[in-house]
Amino acid sequence: MKKMRVLGFKKCPSEHAIYCRGVDTEKLVVGVYVDDLIITGASCNSIEKFKALMAEIFKMSDLGLLTYYLGIEVKQSSEGITLSQGSYVKKILEKAGMVECNPREVPMQAKLKLSRKSDSPCVDATEYRSWVGSLRYLVNTRPDLAFSVGYVSRFMEEHLAAVKHILRYIAGTSCLGLWYARKKSDQPALLEFSDSDFAGDIDNRKNTSRVIFLP
């Protein structure tokens, strides 16, 4: 977006739809998607000035605080910000015909091992990939699904039962999401834990590593 560069913004090298300008209390971050903008920054005054400037250049509407964007629901309060995709979960379950399914408490069976050499009955490949693709987008606000969805993504259509297990899990946890609390001066640092199995992959005998961060 040439106009953003003219206004002094620089494109983020890793996220091409993100533009940044300024530092510290004057820093502004703008997310661009087609003709929609998400504006955030350290100063409300800087944000208001930028919106006024954009209104002079383009015909635009100010929709206020962000509440919904690309399937992600946003709730903002004085305590922090919550990101969730409850409505998107409902759409996934409707598409899969599993709105009334029995929920599961975990996204995948413990110690489940899948292989590319499967004797499972063939299923509709397009349908399988559509479900997995939808689940991958859900990971944006559901890091608890990252491993299980990444695991079934490695296969084509052999392991439908494992995918349906994930769908049953999200059916019972559709209210979950990400919570970003306002930082406090006495907030503890993050703790990292990591582990890996030994030659756990059935097909190539590679190790599987896991990492978890806790406040």
Beta percentage is 15-25%
What's the total count of β strands? 10
Contiguous uncertain segments of 5+ residues: none
| Element order: H for helix, E for strand | HEEEEHEEEHHHHEEE
Number of separate structural domains: 2
What does the overall shape look like? elongated
Portion in helices: 25-40%
Account of the 3D structure:
This protein is α+β, with helices and mostly antiparallel strands. It has 2 domains: 2-64, 2-Layer Sandwich (TATA-Binding Protein); 83-178, no CATH class. The chain is built from 6 helices and 10 strands. It has helices at 2-6, 44-57, 86-96, 125-138, 146-152, 160-171, and strands spanning 10-11, 18-21, 28-33, 36-41, 68-69, 72-76, 80-84, 177-181, 191-196, 209-214. A 4-stranded antiparallel sheet has the order 1-2-3-4, with helices on one face. A hairpin with a 2-residue loop joins strand 3 (28-33) and strand 4 (36-41). The chain is elongated, with a radius of gyration of 21 Å. 13% of the residues are buried. The mean pLDDT is 85.
Short description:
The chain is an alpha+beta fold and 215 residues long.
